[in-house]
Amino acid sequence: MTNASRALAERSSQNETDIEVLTSLRLSAAASLAAHEAAPDPHPGYLTPAEGNAAYQPLDSDLTAIAALATTAFGRALLTLADAAAFTTLGNLATTTLKGLTPASGGGTTNFLRADLTWAAPAGGSNLDDILALEVLL
């Protein structure tokens, strides 16, 4: 039974007419609504627009478009990786026919990655003395 139904039943038993009871309830509801609307913050648990903007990312058309894209299991798996090491484990090494991660270089600054995916020093390299000797001749 609703509050209005209870009030109607209670007041009817006190010899008030239904119209008097309904009029009284309507006036009471109107007064409650007016008080609610006049309150400076009738919903203190709600965020103000400024608080909402500070707490949440605003709507962005680019992000919305990205979110609407179809995904794959592989793509979703990338989002849940813990760190770069986990990504490296998941990724495949490149081959001469497929894209992928490069093999470890072994360190150093003189080796370069060749097309066959091996690391090697450049062939026929020169040394600094040869370069300086050419400069003197020019």
Describe the structure.
With 138 residues, this protein is mostly helical. The protein has a domain at 1-69. It has seven helices and two strands; from the N terminus they run H-H-H-H-H-H-E-E-H. It has helices spanning 3-12, 18-38, 49-55, 61-67, 73-79, 84-90, 128-137; strands at 112-113, 119-120. The protein has a two-stranded antiparallel ribbon. The longest helix has 21 residues, at 18-38. It is rod-shaped and about 115 Å long.
Describe the structure using short key phrases:
7 helices; two-stranded antiparallel ribbon; mainly alpha; 2 strands; 138 residues
Give the topology, please.
Layout: H1 3-12, H2 18-38, H3 49-55, H4 61-67, H5 73-79, H6 84-90, E1 112-113, E2 119-120, H7 128-137
Antiparallel strand pairs: 1-2
So what's the overall shape? Answer: rod-shaped
The whole-angstrom Rg is: 38 Å
Helix content: 40-55%
The tally of strands reads 2
Intertermini distance: 106 Å
**Quaternary structure type:** single chain
**Average of the residue pLDDT scores:** 77
Strand adjacency order, main sheet: 1-2
The biggest beta sheet reads:
2 strands, antiparallel
Question: How many distinct helices?
Answer: 7
Order of helices and strands: HHHHHHEEH
Strand content: under 5%
Low-confidence stretches: none
Q: Please identify the structural class as seen in this structure.
A: mainly alpha
